[in-house]
């Protein structure tokens, strides 16, 4: 009987870790490059909105 090579079983995990690490770096760089929001920006208030579905015609 041949023993399985342990190295071949570890490769998918290492590849997944590499992809997640690259995505993390990408999002960190993109978030620092993005332009800041305008200081005069006013957010919408939703506390008084009714939660009903629109009427069907």
UniProtKB/TrEMBL annotation:
Keyword presence, Membrane: yes
Alphabetical keyword list: Cell membrane, Membrane, Protein transport, Transmembrane, Transmembrane helix, Transport
TM region positions: 12-35
UniProt source species: Sulfitobacter porphyrae
UniProt name for this protein: ExbD/TolR family protein
Main location: membrane
Membrane topology: Single-pass membrane protein; Single-pass type II membrane protein
Localization of this protein: Cell membrane
InterPro entries for this protein: ExbD
Similarity comment text for this entry: Belongs to the ExbD/TolR family.
């Amino acid at each position: 009987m041949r023993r399985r090579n342990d190295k071949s079983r570890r490769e998918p995990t290492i590849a997944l870790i590499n992809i997640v690490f690259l995505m993390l770096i990408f999002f960190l760089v993109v978030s620092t490059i993005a332009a800041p929001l305008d200081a005069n920006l006013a957010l919408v208030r939703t506390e008084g909105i009714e939660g009903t579905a629109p009427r069907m015609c």
